[in-house]
Amino acid sequence: MFLLLFFCLLISFINPSPISNTISSPPPLLLLISFDGFRWDYPDIYNLPNFNSLIKRGVRVKHIDNSFATVTFPSHFTIATGLYEETHGIVANNIYDPILNDVGTVTTMNDAKWWSQNPYSQPIWVSNQLANDSTQRRSGVIAWPGSNVPINGHLPIKYEAFESDRSFDSILKQIFAWFREPIDTRINFGAIYHSQPDATGHAYGPISSQMNETLQECDDYVGVLLKLIDNDKNLKTNLNVIITSDHGMHDVPKNHKIFLEDYIDKSLFSAYGGHSFANIFVNNKEDIDRIYASLSTIPNYEVYKKAQIPDEYHYKSNVRIGDILIVGKVGYEVFVSNTTDADLLGDHGYDNRAESMHPIFYGFGPAFRSNLLAEPFRNVDIYPLMCYILHLNQRKTNGSLDNVKHILIDFSPIIIFIILVIVTAFIYTICACRHCRKLIYVETRIVPDQYRLLSNSDGSKNNLIVSESEDEQENH
Question: Among the CATH numbers 3.30.1360.180, 3.30.750.200, 3.90.180.10, 3.40.50.1820, which is that of 257-347?
């Protein structure tokens, strides 16, 4: 019985299910940070001491397997919801919705109709506030795509929209001010976004002196972040931090571009998406086969009818995805006409399986293991990871907590190994003690024949009684 109780306690100790918070137990603290376009291998290519110091505090994942399309708005909403782009509906930075008969861009998607296409979409800042103990839970979000829009009726309690000229240092100070407010108003979850090094990658390419300068600035911001944490006893002890990105970056030679009007009549279609891929909506559905045949002859580009889009993309089951999808191989771009003046030296949006499209991931704080270079997982897995850290019930998403177990303390193989050693030693000790008792105890005396056991049917209240001797029975 004692062993059974011990194992029950052991199982409850390593059980990964979140623990419900009470009024006397403040909810966990989590800060999510995204550096736009921060490729997974930048810390290996450039000297970034603050980024490289993070592994001593926690975990660096080799890279994140992100989802298609590998562009800013879709990827950030996938991180926030754990849903693929085809599921949450933000399928590009430039979207056409045939039901709404409207076009949304990064500057005009400030309406809930774009972000609430799927009623099930629930960003992590909303999930945090809708928990059962929501009176203690508040989310604060600055500049994260979609955070200033009521998604299915919900906004973060504190939020500030993206401002292109705002310094990231200012954003860091504001989010920490929200974490430090009195208990009745402070946040327990924060998310912030920085537009670099993406802008520099587009203008100068991923490998350049300008990129080195920008990454040094990002590294300095991480230094500021660590000082803000270390100077606050509560945050140093309790704050979990995730630093990640939406996608990587690839260099683009100047002659690696095509113009769709050179292959098909512009009057037959409209195209939306990005420079590396395009959702093509054909005006007359009878022209789909003809347009597809014309585009399929272009070298270095993958062309799919909607039903043929690879399952690995998870990018076909939405009305906002075109009749035809064209995707350039890494380093190739697609434009509708040659009147564009875009001359990028770096781009993204390519096949999400391409190595250069993979972003970074760092995690540190009380929930994470330390000194760990971890195996990759998907960007849809970040949402269930955040739910676990925040002690939220796991919603059904395209991600899985199982894929991130290896970076969490509760799932640490070392801890499990130590527990198994302790259990083995405990069992061995019990067995050894029982064996010793047999050696030191006097052998039990033999019960005489005149003693007999009674069954309950004999009506006796005792199990063991003394019987009369045979001589005494004869005298009677």
Answer: 3.30.1360.180
CATH of domain 29-83+120-250+350-414: 3.40.720.10
Q: Is-catalytic flag, 237?
A: no
Domain ranges of the chain: 29-83+120-250+350-414, 257-347
Candidates 70, 72, 81, 87; catalytic one: 72
410 falls in which pLDDT band (50, 70, 90)? confident
| Percent of the chain residues past pLDDT 90, beyond the cut | 74
> Same CATH topology for 29-83+120-250+350-414 and 257-347?
no
Query: For position 476, what pLDDT does the model report?
Result: 46
Claim: this prediction has a pTM higher than 0.90: no
pLDDT at 217 > cutoff 90: yes
Question: 237 CB contacts (<8 Å, ≥6 apart)?
Answer: 366
Q: Which of 269, 241, 224, 272 is nearest to 104 (CA)?
A: 272
pLDDT digits (tens, 9 = 90+) for 108-163: 999 999 999 999 999 999 999 999 776 789 999 999 999 999 999 999 999 999 99
The pLDDT assigned to 346 comes to 96
pLDDT digits (tens, 9 = 90+) for 448-470: 443 333 334 444 444 433 344 44
